[in-house]
Design brief:
With about 120 residues, the protein is mainly beta. It is built from no helices and 7 strands. The strands form 2 sheets. It has a 4-stranded antiparallel β-sheet with strand order 4-3-6-7, with no helix packed on it. The termini are far apart.
Length: about 120
């Protein structure tokens, strides 16, 4: 467009369109039980975990009295990032403990069920 009141021009010669550089794929360097999400939850939460090598994994849910409520997972898993679902249908509101055991390692996280 040329001429006329209110005419303007934009200099785009400095704009360089570049593809974003791909992020390097990172391999897990450890064993980690991630925080359940969402947390607090009702009635389902996801529990992420990472393994640095293939291992047999057990994920158990306990109440605050130390009673096992449920075993979510008891099987071999490959190296990498994983996730299991905890469906607390029929359970009372409260704090539950998520315990992950794999390769001699053990970690726990809290999950709050609010109804």
């Amino acid at each position: 467009y040329t001429g006329g009141p209110g005419a303007f021009a934009i200099d785009t010669s400095w704009v360089a369109l570049q593809r974003p550089k791909p992020r390097p794929t990172t391999l897990p360097r450890g064993f980690e039980l991630g925080a359940p999400y969402p947390n607090p939850f009702n009635p389902t939460t996801r529990i992420p975990f990472t393994l640095d090598r293939p291992l047999r994994v057990t994920i158990d849910i306990y109440n605050l009295r130390g009673q096992k409520i449920e075993t979510l997972l008891d099987e071999g898993r490959s190296r990498g990032n994983h996730e299991v679902l905890f469906q607390a249908i029929g359970l009372s509101s409260g704090v539950y403990l998520v315990e992950l055991n794999a390769g001699g390692h053990r970690q726990m996280r809290k999950a709050l069920l609010l109804k």
